[in-house]
Amino acid sequence: MTEQVMTVGSVEEPQKESQARGGTPTWIRVLRYTAVRIVMLFITVVIGVYLTILIANMGGHVDEIRRAQIREHVALMLQNDPTFRALPPEARQKRIEAEVRKAEKRLGLDKPFLVRSFIFLHQALTLDLGRAENMTSDSGSRQVRLIILERLPPTLVLFGTSSMLIFFTSLIISLALSRQYGSFWDRLFVSLSPLSAAPGWFYGIFLITIFAAWLKILPFGGMISTPPPETTWEYLLDLGKHLILPIAAQMLTSLFISVYSWRTFFLIYSSEDYVEVAKAKGLPPRMVERRYILRPTLPTIITSFALSLISVWLGQIIFETIFDWPGLGRTFYQAIQVFDTAVIVGITVLYAYLLAITVFLLDIIYAIVDPRVDVGGVQSTTA
Q: Does the domain made of 151-369 have the CATH classification 1.10.3720.10?
C-alpha cells in the first residue's frame, strides 16, 4: 500500500509541475521569454533615443537657431557679390530667400521638426549616424562614426583600466576584511567609505593642484605629452604617467564604498546557518568562501562589474574635461556646447544599445550562476 502511494505521488508531482507550467516545453518557454525581453528592451531603447533627440533639439528650438544662422550666412555671402549689390531691393530679398530655402532643403530643415525627429530616430536606431554639423575628427572628417571611433580608445584606456583595478582590488580587500571583522583595517575602510560621497572630478582638482601645480611631478592633464614620444616604450611610460592622477581620483571616489558594500554582503552571507554547518564539517576556509559566500553574491558582483564596464563607453563628461582627456565624455560635452545633435544622439544610441545588450546577457548569466533562477518559468499556484 505504501509503495502504491509513493508511486502515485511520484507520478502526480511531474503532472502538477507540467500543469503549473501549462504543459509547455522548456525550450519554448525560454524562447518566448527571450523574445519578450528583446522586444521590451528595444522599446526602452527607442523611447530613450527619441527623448534624447527631443532634448538635444530643445523641442525644435535648435532648428530655429540653425535657420537664423543660415540666413545670416547667406546674407553675408551675397553682400560680397557685386551682381547682388546691383539688384533692386525686392530682387535682393527674393535672391536671399531662394538661397536660404536651398540651404534649408540641403540640411533637411524644410521639413517640420516632428517629421525630422522620426527620420532622425530611424537613422539612429539603424546606426546611420550621418555627418556632424559643427564637429570634426582629427583627420578633418565630419562622419559621426569616425568622430566616435576616434574618441573611444582614450575612454576605454582610462575608464577600462580604472574600472578593472577598482573591481578586483575592492573584491580582494572586501573578502579579506570579512575574515577580519572588527580589526584595525576593517574599521579604517569603514571610516573612509564617506570619501566616496564626492565625485571623481572633485578629487581630480585637488590632485592636479598638489601633484601638478605645487609639486610639479605629474602632468596637469592630457593623454600624451607634446611632442609625443618617438619609441613605443617611451610612449607607454608617458601614457602611464598621464594615467596616474585620473586613476587615483577614480580610486578615491569608488574604492572605499565598493569595499564597504561587498564586505557587508560577505559578512551577511558568512553568518548564514549553512556556512556554519560547512565550517563545522571541517571544510577549508577558502572552499567555504568560494562555495557558500561568493556563489550567492555572484549575481550582485556580476551586475556591478557589468554596469561599471558599460560606464566605460560613455566616460564622464566633467571628469574628462577636468583632466583634458580626449575621450567620449569630453566629446559629448563639446557636442552639447555647439548643439551638434548628430554627435549627441550617436553617442547616446551606442550607449543605449550596449546597456540593453548587457541587461539581456545578465539575465542569462544569472540563470547560469544561480540555479534558483528559472528563465521563462511560471510559478506554480498549486500547493
A: yes
